[in-house]
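Hi there,

I know you've been waiting on this one. I reran it after we fixed the sequence typo, so this is the corrected version. Both the input and the resulting structure follow.
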Amino acid sequence: MNKIVVKVKNLGKKWKKTIFITTLVIVAFVGLVILLISPITKYLIEKYDVKYTGREIKMDWLYVNPFTGYIHFNDLKIYEKNRDTVFFSVSGLSANFAMAKLLNKTYEISSLTLDKPKGIVVQNKKHFNFSDLIDKFTSTDKPDTSKIPVHFNILEVEMKDGEFKYIEEVTPINYSIKKVNFKSKGKYWNIDSTDGSFSFMPSTGGGDVKGKFNINLGNLNYRLSLLVNKLDLNIIEQYMLDIANYGRFRANMDADLKAIGNLNDNRNINLKGKVALNDFHFGKTTFEDFGSFKKLSIGITELDPKRNRYSFDTIFLLQPYFKYEKYDYLDNLQYMFGNIDATIKGVQANPEKFNLIIEIGNYIKDIFRNVLNSQYRINHLAVANGDVKFNDYSTNEKFSAQLFPLNLKADSVYNSTRWVSVFLNSGIKPFGQLQVSASMNPKDNTDFNFAYNLNKIPAAAFNPYLITYTSFPLNRGVVALNGNWTVRKDIINSINHFVFVDPRVTKRIKKRHSPWIPLPLIMTFIRETGNVVDYEIPITGDLKNPKFHFKDAIFDLVKNILIKPPTTPYRIDVKHTENEIEKLLSLNWGMRQTELLNKQDVFMHRISKFLEANPEAVISVHPITYSEKEKEYILFFEAKKKYYFNKANRNANTMSRGDSVDIERMYIKDPSFTKYLDNYSGKVLVYTTQEKCMRMVGATAVNALYEKLIIERERIFMQYFKDTHTEKQVKLYANENTIPFNGFSFFRINYKTDIPESLLNAYEQLSLFNSESPRKKYLKFRKGRG
């Protein structure tokens, strides 16, 4: 019995030893396989990479476990074809294969993780830097349907902290994103749909994008939820330069959108949510905008182009700005974009060229082309604090006008309503007001009503045009224009009323080669008895061929010729009274003027004697200077002076009064002078005479001469009171830089105590004139004058 027990024990020890050794061998084998297969696999991949992929592949190290199906690449790099630059790299790539399912011909990656992947996509026309990989791994053989199909599943896909760059060499475009994160539960071979989430941010600029999606890879139907926060849209600038000669752009975007659609049909989309463009700027340089706005906010209730449904809760544009400038040749937009229609057609003519701006524009145009024939609705439409500027440098002097603040409002814009109403009001700088009201039949855009009213506009604002085309400026007058239009099926019925109150032409400005039209003579014919130009001009016909009816204007012209002679004494009395008031209330200065004219000298002696005779009388004097225009005149004179003495090969220090008169009369648009400025400016992007002159003269010199002008005017003015020892009765205030209503710099005089009797009499007489026909009906316009 004991022997049997001993034998059993010995047998057990042998089995234990055998099992132990077997286990040890298996473990050693497995360990050896794991230990050797990783470097062997790494070696084989790096040896045969070019043969089988056409690309060189390198890695730091590789771990492969054939028993668990786990594989990990560390610092994997795939290079561009036949180049030493990296096409794709990943800090760590891990995958788990379901080894048991291989027996059922199902290849399943149960998890795939990419840590810090980096990739670059390069496009040249229709060729991409990965096109060779697509060609290499695309099978041209017909599938063998007799074999049992192989199934492929890829599950639990995750990308962490990726970075990708896109380069398009034709336009060219260089754009990259970073912090790219992606998660998806993956896709089974027998299920078409998959979902996931993603996020990224641009490599340059701020903002980020987050989203969730679900897509059916069979029919390409999708659902998308997108959240965008202050995403920098600097990529737009690169596409803009493809259609522009120069320019800068910046903007960012917010969005919270939900969409359902199909990737094969861009009209098959149902979109809801909010989108906003912020801090939008485009222009000549980073600091000079042609157009901008602070915010464009759009609340989308439903946007469904396929079913022709366009429903918006709110469209709101905050602080839009637009500047249009006209030069001697072309304008600011033409210089930037050239012939924009021809440029766009040129880009579109190349089928291998893609431009994001054009594609977005075409898509928006396609949508709005169908809006009027669709079901559309806008609950609230508004523009707030707009700013529209117009500068014309083609005239001898710069003309400027500005609509600010411009506000527009339209409520309840429905396709089912009878009429849609829009209201616009704006200030006009330097002076004036604009009101516009319009209503349109939403079912027929050839039916609309339109009413406008411009008032309180100073006639002197148009002096740049009057000087350029007639040589005569105005220093008095108020312009108003209003009208009512009714249009049905493009047929116009309108009344337009033009009123010009108290126009007064000043002395002719003589310039060589400058046109001369006898504006004072013309005024005598068109001006009515009450010193008013008042005409109604009906317009009829259709929008493509309007007819202007000047019957009223011609009748008034004939009436003025016949009626005015008997009323000449009345008009002379009114003019004398107005001049008397103006002389006692202000001292006008011509541009660059420092020496007083004879009539001004008489006035200064008169007022100084008044103070001497009335020791208790006190006056306050407010110098009002049209600094922008004064500096422009100084700039032109100094630039012409340089040209004048350079052409004569003389020193400017020898300038005489005759030289000064010759320089003053020199035509600013003289071809030889313009050529001189162009040669000095070289290839710098300057298009205006003002900019060219400033490059030659310099802002420092202009400002110094301007300050000297101000000081000299004040000295000359005060000298009259010093001569009569009445300077203590004069309070001279600091100079105020603004745009005067009369278009000229002046000293405004206020009488704090005693008022000259002649001024009181003139006021009483003018009040009497204004309360009687024919001036009474225009009293409201005269009150609008500054």
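Quick highlight: The CA atoms of residues 82 and 517 lie 76 Å apart.

Best,
R. S.
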